[in-house]
């Protein structure tokens, strides 16, 4: 991909929680290019979520500097930054503030003091974009997890942000919900030229990203394109992840005496390689 | 212990917002000591079915036989307790049920309720904690000081300490990272293989179905619409797709390879190992039947 | 639980449903006050017919109103009996010690009976036709003047709305936790009082912990979405006053006039 100017930078960022010995983030430095999709992976408790919260000023950092959309993350800028960076959190239940879908989408706009006539238009437009228009008057109790997450996305979208951060936003959803949320995000990224920063365990989602960053015990341990990261094979397991399916298959086939090209192959590439092997025999 | 549902229907009290998530004329047998997977979309009736297996719910129509106890709509709520010790039910996000001051007390809570003397209950708690990989250094900790994954294990230990003959698991790995997921699935497999505990697993992970289950129930709209071995269930990808269910990754990839033209022999390999095994003969020089 | 109709909302599309909730609340309270001025057959008949008209306008089945009255039936009968036996006046049919059955007692008892039924029917009408959300919105709106004495009306309103929004969530959670503990051998609703109280602990603590988690996450989510208590906000949900609301005020004014006209001089 073409390197764009960074939209997020972190320089030596450290976060320490009061009751814990080990820092949650320990001198993290990274940059995230604008308009890219970056997957942030690592096992539970590795510090991935803390990283998102630090960027959004929800935890205070004990050292280092960060910028989001050209603004230094500090007390003075934080409310502006929160309009540029929207976060979809893990639990669909716990970010639904409004009494109905439309009320919830409007919540951020009310906070931004958008006048009501403009608000009505923007709520309608955002709901349209996530395909929830028909549910505008529904109460959250009558929505599935995937629908609630799409409402959360609409709430962010209404504020026209530059970046959407997904903090394990699909981990509590069933496969259908997960697919619908990812589909929505993909479409929106293209339409609105967004930058996506996604904390995830889903290797398939990570495989589709432009960049993968691996966090372990508060350290950045790897960063690169999905093929670069996934070629690490068994080392991924030590980081609390799993080995991508094609890598596993490759290991087993190689153990059976088959030679396959070095480097990570996605499913299509792997299938093509197998066909090549078979047909040239 | 065998569980037999005979024409079981269940209707939730009218007025609940999620009416329809009941059961309609379900007749299934969960064989003694089997590993059964239940798959189906959210709201297909899986949770309702589970709660019939330990008589948390009683059928509105039909009968449920759990071992030698028969539950009918008329069965009184008394004396159902012994059943619940034999059929352990681990709810989704089971860590939400923890409440005691210490880890060991919480795990001993179940056995104590079933009349096990305090000392033995504690012994059982320690044994169960060992099984789930929670070491003695945590026994005196508050369960609320543990990590999410550890809390889940403690909650599971709390059910294992009741020494159930059948373990019912409602999406036990939801929200865990891949490592935690793998560890738990291995634990359940061990309990099944080594101690002969029957397992009923509700899951959205088709890989788990392919890797572990012996028997699969497919649910939709409160009914069991198909049952059989994983091979039988996954043999019809189009039917699964029509019911919003997927294939295990290995089977999906096998179909991709077949579409490329590789003559993978039937049946469709369901696991990565089976797939590698099926591919190797085709790729080895000399062994492959090059019919070009 | 399903029988209890007090506080239940039945969505609908009737004139009464569509009324401004502020107007509805104020008018219902006004009506309850007005009922106490009824003191003869004609005035009771007036408020009674008015209630019947209002009930019919909701297009909700009468059975739901009856269910609203049902739980209070013993209270009503008790009050009626006291009226019957302790009021003396007019012709005394029967007397024994402090008890007496008199014509005035019987008439009074009828009035009390009607008054209670009318009041309960009208309050049931309010809750049946107004969503909790509208009631909370209306209450906040009615509290607006309190801003002048520095009551944080907006914060209270948001709290109320969030509390209502989480009621179904916490109800679901309670059921789930109860089931999980029942699966671990807890018996609810059996044994001595002490045992029953003890059985509540394994529900209350997880519920409390879970509520705390909801609150922490919600705090983050609200902050991330730009909510600050020290800044003004605009409002998406507005309650609109329509002509029909003005008309209903007129109707109540007319009712007042009639009641006072037919009252005993």
Automatic annotation (TrEMBL), chain B:
It comes from the Bacteria. It is found in: Cell membrane. The keyword Secreted does not apply. InterPro entries: AAA+_ATPase, ABC_transporter-like_ATP-bd, ABC_transporter-like_CS, ABC_transpr_CbiO/EcfA_su, ECF_ABC_transporter_ATP-bd, EcfA2, P-loop_NTPase. GO terms for molecular function: ATP binding; ATP hydrolysis activity; ATPase-coupled transmembrane transporter activity. Forms a stable energy-coupling factor (ECF) transporter complex composed of 2 membrane-embedded substrate-binding proteins (S component), 2 ATP-binding proteins (A component) and 2 transmembrane proteins (T component). Belongs to the ABC transporter superfamily. Energy-coupling factor EcfA family. This is Energy-coupling factor transporter ATP-binding protein EcfA2. It comes from Schleiferilactobacillus shenzhenensis LY-73.
UniProtKB/TrEMBL annotation, chain C:
PANTHER family: SLL0384 PROTEIN (PTHR34857:SF2). It is a multi-pass membrane protein. The keyword Transport applies. It is found in: Cell membrane. Belongs to the energy-coupling factor EcfT family. Its main location: membrane. It comes from Schleiferilactobacillus shenzhenensis LY-73. This is Energy-coupling factor transporter transmembrane protein EcfT. Keywords: Cell membrane, Membrane, Transmembrane, Transmembrane helix, Transport. InterPro entries: ABC/ECF_trnsptr_transmembrane (IPR003339), ECF_transporter_component (IPR051611), EcfT (IPR024919).
């Amino acid at each position: 991909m073409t390197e764009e100017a960074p939209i997020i930078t972190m320089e030596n960022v450290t976060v320490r929680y009061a009751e814990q010995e080990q820092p949650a983030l320990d001198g993290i430095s990274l940059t995230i290019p604008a308009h890219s999709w970056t997957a942030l992976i690592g096992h539970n408790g590795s510090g991935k979520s803390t990283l998102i919260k630090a960027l959004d000023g929800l935890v205070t950092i004990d050292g280092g500097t960060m910028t989001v959309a050209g603004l230094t993350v500090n007390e003075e800028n934080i409310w502006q930054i929160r309009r540029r960076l929207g976060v979809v959190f893990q639990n669909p239940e716990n970010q639904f503030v409004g009494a109905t879908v439309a009320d919830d989408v409007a919540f951020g706009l009310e906070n931004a003091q958008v006048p009501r006539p403009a608000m009505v238009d923007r709520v309608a437009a955002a709901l349209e974009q996530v395909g929830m228009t028909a549910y505008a008057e529904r109460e959250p109790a009558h929505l599935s997890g995937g629908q609630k997450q799409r409402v959360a996305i609409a709430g962010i979208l209404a504020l026209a942000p530059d970046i959407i951060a997904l903090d394990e936003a699909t981990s509590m959803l069933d496969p259908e919900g997960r697919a619908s949320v990812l589909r929505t995000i993909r479409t929106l990224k293209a339409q609105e030229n967004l930058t996506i920063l996604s904390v995830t365990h889903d290797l398939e989602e990570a495989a589709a990203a432009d960049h993968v960053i691996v966090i372990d015990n508060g350290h950045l341990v790897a960063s690169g394109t999905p093929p670069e990261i996934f070629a690490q094979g068994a080392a991924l397991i030590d980081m609390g992840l799993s080995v991508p399916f094609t890598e596993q298959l490759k290991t087993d086939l190689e153990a059976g005496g088959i030679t396959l090209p070095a480097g990570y192959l996605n499913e299509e590439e792997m299938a093509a390689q197998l066909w090549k092997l078979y047909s040239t025999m | 212990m065998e569980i037999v549902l005979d024409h079981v229907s269940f209707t939730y009290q009218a007025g609940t917002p999620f009416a329809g998530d009941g059961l309609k004329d379900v007749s299934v047998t969960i064989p003694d000591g089997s590993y059964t997977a239940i798959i189906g979309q959210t709201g297909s009736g899986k949770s309702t079915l589970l709660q019939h297996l330990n008589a948390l719910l009683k059928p509105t129509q039909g009968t449920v036989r759990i071992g030698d106890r028969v539950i009918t709509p008329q069965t009184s709520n008394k004396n159902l307790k012994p059943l619940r010790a034999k059929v352990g039910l681990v709810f989704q996000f089971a860590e939400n049920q923890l409440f005691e001051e210490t880890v060991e007390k919480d795990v001993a809570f179940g056995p104590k309720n079933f009349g096990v003397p305090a000392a033995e209950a504690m012994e059982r708690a320690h044994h169960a904690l060992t099984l789930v990989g929670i070491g003695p250094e945590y026994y005196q900790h508050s369960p609320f000081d543990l990590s999410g994954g550890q809390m889940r294990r403690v909650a599971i230990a709390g059910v294992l300490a009741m020494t159930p003959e059948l373990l019912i698991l409602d999406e036990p790995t939801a929200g865990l990272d891949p490592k935690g997921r793998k560890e738990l699935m291995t634990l359940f497999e061990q309990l099944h293989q080594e101690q002969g505990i029957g397992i009923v697993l509700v899951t959205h992970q088709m890989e788990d179905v392919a890797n572990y289950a012996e028997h699969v129930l497919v649910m939709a709209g409160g009914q069991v619409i198909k049952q059989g071995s994983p091979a039988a269930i996954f043999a019809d990808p189009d039917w699964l797709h029509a019911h919003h269910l997927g294939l295990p990754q290995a089977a999906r990839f096998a179909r991709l390879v077949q579409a490329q033209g590789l003559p993978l022999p039937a049946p469709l390999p369901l696991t990565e190992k089976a797939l590698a095994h099926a591919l190797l003969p085709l790729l080895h020089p000399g062994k492959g039947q090059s019919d070009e | 639980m399903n029988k209890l109709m007090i506080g239940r909302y039945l969505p609908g599309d009737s004139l009464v449903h569509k009324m401004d909730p502020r107007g509805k609340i104020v008018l219902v309270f006004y009506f309850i006050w007005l009922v106490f001025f009824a003191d003869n057959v004609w005035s009771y008949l007036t408020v009674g017919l008015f209630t019947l008209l209002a009930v019919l306008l909701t297009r909700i089945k009468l059975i739901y109103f009856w269910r609203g009255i049902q739980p209070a039936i013993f209270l009503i009968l008790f009050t009626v009996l006291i009226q019957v036996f302790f009021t003396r006046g007019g012709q005394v049919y029967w007397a024994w010690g402090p008890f007496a059955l008199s014509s005035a007692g019987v008439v009074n008892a009828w009035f009390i009976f009607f008054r209670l039924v009318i009041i309960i029917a009208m309050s049931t009408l309010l809750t049946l036709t107004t969503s909790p959300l509208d009631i909370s919105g209306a209450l906040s709106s009615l509290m607006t003047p309190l801003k002048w004495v520095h009551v944080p009306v907006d914060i209270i309103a948001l709290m109320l709305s969030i509390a209502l929004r989480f009621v179904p969530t916490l109800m679901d959670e309670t059921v789930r936790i109860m089931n999980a503990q029942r699966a671990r051998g807890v018996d609810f609703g059996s044994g001595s009082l002490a045992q029953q109280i003890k059985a509540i602990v394994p529900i209350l603590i997880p519920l409390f912990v879970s509520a705390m988690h909801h609150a922490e996450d919600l705090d983050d989510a609200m902050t991330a979405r730009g909510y600050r208590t020290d800044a003004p906000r605009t409002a998406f949900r507005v309650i609109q006053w329509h002509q029909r609301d003005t008309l209903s005020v007129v109707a109540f004014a007319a009712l007042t006039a009639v009641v006072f006209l037919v009252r005993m001089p």
